[in-house]
Each structure stands twice: as C-alpha cells, then as structure tokens.
C-alpha cells in the first residue's frame, strides 16, 4: 500500500511568491532610501515634491516598496483570515512581472518621455486588476462575509481607482487638459492611494494582526464595520468635495474619518489591555504606538487647514511623515513577525525537527531591532522638520541617519534565514 503524500500547508504553497514580492519591495525601499539622500535636499529647496524627482521617489516608495510588500503579505494574510488557499499562484507571478515592469517604466518615464509613464501605468493597471481579481476570487471560495472582507475589498477598490486616476493624469498632461481638472485628478489620486489603499489596508489588517501578536482576547465585533465604513466613507466624501468644490462636504468627511479612527484607537488599546501572552512582541510595539500618533497628526493637520493662512509645507510634511514614517516603519515592524512566521514552518516541517527547533520569538533580537527602528524614525522626524523649516541640511542629516538604521535593521531581519 503506497504512502499518502503529506498535504502542503497553504502558507508554504505560495511561500516563494510571497518572498518574491516582499524581497523585491525591500530592495526597492533600500534603493529609495539611498537615492533619497540625493533627492530630498533638492526637494526641500524647491519647497515641493511635485517635480520629476519627487514623483520618482514617491512612486518608488509607494508602488515599489509599500504596495509590493502589501501585495505579498496580503496573499498570505487572506489565506489565514479566510482559512483557504490562494485562488491562483500563476496569476500572482504574472502580476509580479507586470507590476515590476510598470514601476520601472514609470521611473524611467519621469526623466525621459511621458509615453513611458503611460505604458508603465497601463502595465501597473493590468497587474492591479489581476491582483484584485486573485484576492476577491480567494475570498469568494469561502463565500464568507466579515469585516476583513469588507475592509480589504474597499481598500482594493481604492487601489484600482488610484491607478486609473494615475493613468488619467498622464493622459491629461499629454493632452494639455485644463489645470482645474488635472488638480482635481491629482488630489483624488492622493486621497485614494495614500488614505484609501495603503492606510485602509494597514487599518484592516491591524484589526487582525494586533490581537494575534499580543495574544489578546479582544476580538473584532460590529464596531469593526463602523471603523472601516466611516473611514472609507470619509475618504470618498473628501474626493467628492474636491470635484464638487463643496467645502462643507470636506468637513463632514473629516468628521467621519475622525469618528471611525477614534473607534479604531479605542479598539487597539483594548487589544493591549486584554493581552494574555507575556512573550516579547519586539518591534510590533512601534507599529502600535504609531497608530495613535498618526491619528493625532491627522487631527492637527485638519485643524491647521482651517487657519486663514495655513502653515507652509504642512501637507508636504504630512505626506512625507505618512510614507516614510507610518507606512515604512509599520511595514518593517510587522515584517519582524511575519517573516519568521512564514520561514519557521518551512524550515521545520517534521515533528522531529520541531522538537529541537528555535522558538519563533528567539529568531530575531527584538529589543535591539526596536531601538534600530526608533532610530530610523528619529531620522525621519529630522527629514520632516527639514521640509517644514525649509532646511535642506537638516533634511539630509535626517535621511542619512534613517538610511544607516534601515541598513542595520534589514541586516538583522535577514538573520531569520540563518536557521
């Protein structure tokens, strides 16, 4: 009688695909941080990021770094949340090739010809459609509706709108469409990309990841629907206010987002309060405290926008804080847990191997890496201060500090693979 072939767990079935996305994203992040040492001082002197250099750096960080890692991690997290397997690995690989090609096309296009921007944008768009289809079909396999499906679906919708609006911007620039339409498209692109897509994804996955990492008894209830719903309604109303020029609608949008985020902050502190585990959680504490800090910054920004003269470079400073501070530090923080979680079952597959296996929390030096991540954030604070104060030297010093700590942090992170 032949021996039955052991079933490969879902997380191991797509391990190569996941690490392909995460590894490429980390490489692009490191490249963006190094290149930023040359580009950021110039952007500070120009007092704007709306230049080819700014577009280059922003898209390398958002499409190349944050989105690549989000895609790779979401394949695994969707399997865990929905308790199923990814719909299609092949689609994932095709999407990877198209997305990387599109990002490279965009990068070259910002310095050469607008046609490359359009070609790169189309490639990214096709990749995005494949990604959304793959995830939605994965969720459909379970035919289950919950707060995570809602949150991920809304974030995916924002992602598609972001890339469609990006294509529209390229066509408007090529055709010389009136400035008002271009500005409305640009600001909608920012709201859907930064607030709807990446911020929304961090929020919805934090609802699941933080209780797991803290080993907390606090679970998502119906409040999760209010958190996700109010937040995304606020994003959508902000975009509508841009096109309709109804300022009062923007105030309602901000109110929706503030209420939703208030519920979210209350939830994460309840997660920590009802923690059962006492094992060290490492750099996750950085991601935890960044959430209320960004909430306070969002409120401060919203109030400052109401001032008659406003504050120069405030919005640029907030965007840099979100991308380099919140997005990047949160992703690095969560990877501290995600990478060992994926690698450990691959490295130790049999019962015999697991008896003498290293424990998950022992695979990385949590306390040291937490200090390194805080050091990175100190550098980013100096970069943002440089933007607001229009001091290019301060911004350069901050960027160099951030680069040094990123290199050290990534060197620590790869120690997982020594086992």
Can you walk me through this structure?
By secondary structure, this protein is mostly helical. It folds into three domains: 1-144; 148-214 and 216-276, no CATH class; 279-345 and 359-419, no CATH class. It contains 14 helices and no strands. The protein is globular. Residues 1-5 have low confidence and may be disordered. The chain crosses the membrane at residues 20-40, 55-78, 90-108, 114-133, 145-170, 190-211, 223-243, 249-270, 282-303, 323-344, 369-387, 393-411. Keywords: Membrane, Transmembrane, Transmembrane helix. InterPro entries: Cyt_c_oxase-like_su1_sf. This is Cbb3-type cytochrome c oxidase subunit I.
Strand count, sense and closure of the main sheet?
A: none
What is the CA-CA span between the terminal residues?
36 Å
Structural class: mainly alpha
* Net shape: globular
Cα radius of gyration in angstroms: 21 Å
- Low-pLDDT segments: 1-5
Number of domains: 3
Q: Using DSSP, what is the number of strands? A: 0
What percent of the residues sit in helical stretches (DSSP H or I)? over 70%
Summarize the structure.
The chain is an all-alpha fold and 419 residues long.
């Amino acid at each position: 009688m032949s021996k039955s072939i052991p079933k490969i767990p879902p997380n191991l079935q797509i391990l190569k695909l996941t690490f392909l996305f995460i590894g490429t994203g980390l490489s692009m992040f490191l490249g963006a941080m190094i290149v930023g040492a040359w580009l950021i001082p110039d952007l500070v002197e120009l007092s704007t990021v709306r230049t080819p250099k700014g577009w280059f750096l922003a898209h390398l960080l958002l499409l190349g770094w944050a989105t690549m890692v989000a895609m790779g991690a979401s394949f695994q997290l969707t399997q865990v949340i929905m308790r199923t397997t990814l719909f299609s690995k092949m689609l994932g690989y095709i999407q990877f090739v198209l997305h990387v090609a599109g990002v490279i096309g965009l990068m070259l296009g910002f310095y050469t010809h607008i046609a490359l921007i359009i070609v790169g944008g189309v490639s990214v768009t096709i990749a995005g459609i494949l990604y959304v289809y793959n995830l939605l079909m994965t969720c459909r396999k379970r035919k289950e509706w919950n707060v995570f499906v809602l949150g991920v679906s809304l974030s995916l919708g924002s992602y598609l709108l972001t890339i469609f609006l990006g294509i529209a911007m390229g066509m408007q620039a090529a055709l010389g469409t009136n400035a008002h339409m271009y500005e409305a498209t640009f600001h909608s692109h920012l709201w859907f990309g930064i607030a709807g897509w990446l911020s929304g994804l961090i929020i919805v996955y934090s609802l699941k990841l933080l209780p797991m990492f803290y080993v907390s008894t606090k679970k998502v209830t119906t409040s999760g629907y209010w958190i996700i719903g109010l937040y995304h309604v606020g994003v959508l109303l902000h975009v509508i206010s841009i096109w309709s020029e109804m300022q009062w609608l923007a105030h309602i949008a901000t109110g929706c987002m503030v209420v939703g985020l208030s519920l979210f902050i209350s939830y994460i502190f309840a997660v920590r309060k009802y923690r059962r585990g006492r094992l060290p959680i490492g750099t996750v504490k950085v991601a935890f405290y960044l959430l209320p800090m960004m909430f306070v910054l969002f409120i401060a920004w919203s109030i400052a926008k109401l001032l008659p003269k406003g504050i120069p470079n405030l919005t640029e400073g907030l965007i840099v804080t979100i991308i380099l501070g919140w997005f990047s530090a949160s992703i690095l923080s969560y990877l501290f847990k995600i990478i060992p979680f994926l690698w450990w079952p691959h490295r130790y597959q049999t019962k015999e191997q697991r008896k003498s296996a290293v424990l998950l929390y022992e695979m990385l030096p949590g306390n040291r890496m937490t200090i390194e991540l805080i050091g990175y954030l100190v550098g980013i604070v100096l970069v943002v201060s440089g933007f607001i104060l229009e001091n290019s030297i301060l911004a350069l010093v901050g960027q160099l500090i951030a680069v040094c700590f990123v290199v050290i942090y990534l060197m620590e992170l790869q120690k997982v693979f020594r086992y």
